[in-house]
Each structure stands twice: as structure tokens, then as C-alpha cells.
């Protein structure tokens, strides 16, 4: 079993109002990645992904395209110490 990692991701572009959060949740659950996703007041989306390294990296790569209606301009990633997230949720 590979080491558990945690990434915090900020996605900018046209990423609100295009089902980006719901698609992120579905993609994360399909990859067995835990964490959460939420809209920010500045128009970006923030997500935390926690799980096996390959699965988290796959989610980061997924964020560059996101939902079919999204127009992603930038994905900013930072790594943190795992925090024991379980399941994947949409935060309001």
C-alpha cells in the first residue's frame, strides 16, 4: 500500500455554475480519494484531496479539465500533511 498524501488545489477560470464541484466529487469517489470541494467568493474552486499518491495525482490532473462545461485557466497545488479525511463532500 502506498503512502497517503494530501493536496490542496485552487482552480481558477470558469469553474462555478458549471457543475465543477459535483463532477469533482464524482471523480474523487471513483478514484477512492477523500476530501472536499467548495466554491470561493473570488470565483475559484478550492479542493482538498487525500489518499494514495497515484489517486491524488490523478485528481490533480483531472482538475486541469474538470467538468465538461468548465474553462479552467489555472490549477495551483500545495501539499500538506494528511489530516485523516474520510469520504468526499461538497462544502457550501
From TrEMBL:
<dbReference type="Pfam" id="PF00708">
    <property type="entry name" value="Acylphosphatase"/>
</dbReference>
<dbReference type="InterPro" id="IPR036046">
    <property type="entry name" value="Acylphosphatase-like_dom_sf"/>
</dbReference>
<dbReference type="GO" id="GO:0003998">
    <property type="term" value="F:acylphosphatase activity"/>
</dbReference>
<protein>
    <recommendedName>
        <fullName>acylphosphatase</fullName>
        <ecNumber>3.6.1.7</ecNumber>
    </recommendedName>
</protein>
<dbReference type="InterPro" id="IPR020456">
    <property type="entry name" value="Acylphosphatase"/>
</dbReference>
<dbReference type="InterPro" id="IPR001792">
    <property type="entry name" value="Acylphosphatase-like_dom"/>
</dbReference>
<feature type="domain" description="Acylphosphatase-like">
    <location>
        <begin position="6"/>
        <end position="92"/>
    </location>
</feature>
<feature type="active site">
    <location>
        <position position="21"/>
    </location>
</feature>
<feature type="active site">
    <location>
        <position position="39"/>
    </location>
</feature>
<comment type="similarity">
    <text>Belongs to the acylphosphatase family.</text>
</comment>
<dbReference type="InterPro" id="IPR017968">
    <property type="entry name" value="Acylphosphatase_CS"/>
</dbReference>
<keyword id="KW-0378">Hydrolase</keyword>
